[in-house]
Fold:
Amino acid sequence: MKSRIFLLIALVAMVSCQSKDPVERRIDKLLSQMTLEEKIAQMTQVCGGQISDNIADQIRNGAGSMLNSVGAEADYYQHIAVEESRLGIPMIFARDVIHGFRTIFPIPLGQAATFDPDIVEEGARIAAEEAVQAGLRWTFSPMVDVARDPRWGRVAEGYGEDTYLASVMGAAAVRGYQGNDSVVRMAACVKHFAGYAVSEGGRDYNSTWIPEVQLRETYLPPFKAAIDAGSLSIMCAFNDLNGVPASGNKHLNVDILRDEWQFDGVLVSDWASLQNMNNQGNSANLKEATKLCANAQMDMDMESKGYPRHLKELVEEGEVSEDIIDNCVRNILRMKFRLGLFDNPYCYTENPEYFTPESLSAAQKAAEESAVLLKNNGILPLNNNSKLTVLVCGPMANAPHEQNGTWCFDKDDAMTITPMMAFRELAKEGKIKLIEQKGEHWSREFNKENIATLARLAKQADVVLYFGGEESILSGEARSRAVLNLPGDQSEQIRAIKATGKPVVLTVMAGRPLCIKEDIDRVDAVLYAFHGGTMQGPALANLIMGKVAPSGRLPMTFPMGEGQIPFYYNYKMPSRMMAKSPKLINDIPVRAYQFSIGETSYWLEYGNKPLYPFGYGLTYTTFEYGAVQLSDTILSLSGAPKSIIASCEITNTGYCDAVAVPQLYIRDVVGTLTRPLRELKGFQRVNIPAGETRTVSFEISEQDLAYWHLADGVTLGSDGEYAFSAEKGDFHVWIAPNAAEGQYIPFTLVE
Structure:
C-alpha cells in the first residue's frame, strides 16, 4: 500500500513538473542551486557609474541588477556576472530613460498633450532601441501618477490629470519599450505605486491620504492598464499612503498587486526608499524597514542597502520567510528570462546608431503635436515673407540644455536644435529677416539692461517671437514650486516689448502648467510647448510659420492662479450650485450683509472657471461640432442593446487643413456615491481638410459606465467589499472639443 502511495506522489510530481512552463522549470532549477546569500544578492540593485573592485566583487557574489552603468562599463560588469559568478546569472542594467535616451522627445506631459498614443509608443520604441545599444535593458518608465497639482514638479514626468488619458498613454509606452516580439526589447517599469502625485501641498515626498474608493477609481487604473499591456515591473512610491509607506504597504503590494491583479513581475523600490521609511516614522531603523518591505513582497532593493545588510539575519530570526525570498527571486529571474538575458546577455554595441533620420523625424513630429495653441489674435501663422523682420528672443530661444527638459541624462546638447537655430535657417533661405537677441540668458535672470535692449530691438522688428518658460531644473523630482509664474524678469521683458506696439508671440517651454494670465493677456498669440526635446526648434518654426497646424490639447487644467489648485475638470458638483456670473471680490459692496454675496461655490478672485480647461487647444482653422446622435437612448445591463454608438459631425469651417481632437465625456447623473460632472472615456485625432465634414463615432458599453463603489449593504467606514459596476439610471454624453464645451444628450441604463 505504501509503495502505491509513493508511486502516486511521484507521478503527480512528475506530471506537475512536466506541465510547468519551460521558463518556470529553469527558474526552479536555478533556485534549487542558490544559497540564501545568492538569493539576497539577486534582490539587490547596486549603483554603477564607475569601474570599481567593490562593485565587481558584489557582482561575483550574485548581485542582480545595476543602476546607471552604461556602455562599455555595463558590458564589463556583465562579463563578470556571466563568466565569474558561481551560477552565471546575468545582470540587468537599468536607467531612467524617461522621454528618450539620446534622441530626446517631449517630456511625458507634452506627449500627453498630443492625445496620440502612437506618438508615445513610437517615442518609447526609439528610446529603447537606442538604450539597448548601450547595454541597458530596464527603464524606470512610464510614470502614470494621475497628477492634479502643478506645483508638484513631477507632473512633467506623467500624462496629466485624467485617469483614462494616463491609462491609454501609459499602456502605449509599455508597448513601445517592450515590443511585441517573443523576446522583450527593454523592460518597462510603471511608477510610482501608488498615490504619489497627491503629495500634500504639491511638496515632493510628502504624505498622501486617499480613500479606498478614490484610490481604485482615480489612481490605480493606469497601473492596471500598464500591467495589462505587459509591463514587466513596477516601482514603489516614496510617499506614505494612508499612514503606511508605499514600499512596505502590504495592502498595495500584496492584497492588490499580487493577489488581486496576479502580477508576477518585479516590484522594485525607488531610490533608497527603505531608508526613507525611517524618516517617515514607520520603522525605527533600516533592519525594521527591511523586514516590512520584504514581508510586503518587494522584490528588489534599489540602493537602500537594507536587503544585503539585514535580510539574511531576518530570515535566520524567523522574521522573514525564505518562501517570500524565493518568490521574490523567482520574479526577478522570470523578468531576466523574458528579456532573453540567459540566452543573449550581451547587447552593448561599440558603434551605436543614434540620432538617425528616423528618430529625429519622429522626435520632431512629437514636438509638433505636443504644442498647444492657447491664444491667437490672427498673428499666426506668420507668412513666408522675405520682407518680414522677426526678432527671436527670450531665455528659452537658444537654450538646448533647457528645452530637453527633466530626466535626460544621456542627451547631447550639440545635437539639439533650438528655435533660434531653426529661424537662422529660415533667414538663410531668405524666408524672413532675422534679429537675434545676443548674449547668454537664463529663465531666472534679472537684468534691466537686457530689458532695455529687447525694447530697442523690438522697434526694429515687424513681429517679436518671445521664447520663455522655466529651465529644466525647475521641474521634475524635488522641484515643487509655490509660485507658478514665469521666473526672473520675463514678465517685465514681455511688458517692455509689448509697449513698443509690436505684435508679440509668446512660446512657453515648461515642465508644468504655469499661472501666467497677465502675460497671456498682454501678447497676441501663445503656444504652450512644454519641454520638447532634441527637435523642438524646427517643430516650433514649422508651427509658427504655418507649415504645420497646431493640434495639441491640454492634458491638465490651467488655473488662473495658485489659489485654485488643485483644479481639475472632473470635479464633483458642490452642494450649492455654482454661479454662472458670480460676484467677484470687487463686486461686493462695502459693509454688505453676508447673504448679499450669494451662497454659491467659487473663488472671489477668479470665479469658478480655469484659465484654460482640460482638453483645450486651438488651431489655424475653426471646427463646428454638430449635435450628438445616439444609436439608442437605452442601454441594457441584461438584455439588448449591450452597447450604443455616440456620433457627431465635425466640420472644418476655416481655410486650412487641420486635426480635430473630439473627446467623449460621460456623466452618471445619480449614483450610490456622488459622481464627477464629466469623465473622459475616449478621444480621437481626425484630420479634416478645409471645408469638409467628418463623422466621428464612439462605442459606449456598460464597462464605460462602471465605477468603484461600496458593495450592497456596506457602509462607509466599515470593512467590506468594493464593487466595480454600473448602476442603472440616467447618463449624459458629450462629444466635445474640450472638457468645458459642448451640449450633452441623455440616455438611460436599465436592467
Observations:
- Residues 370-545 form a domain with the Rossmann fold fold (CATH 3.40.50.1700).
- The first strand starts at residue 44 and ends at 47.
- The two ends are 58 Å apart (CA to CA).
- The chain has 23 helices and 29 strands.
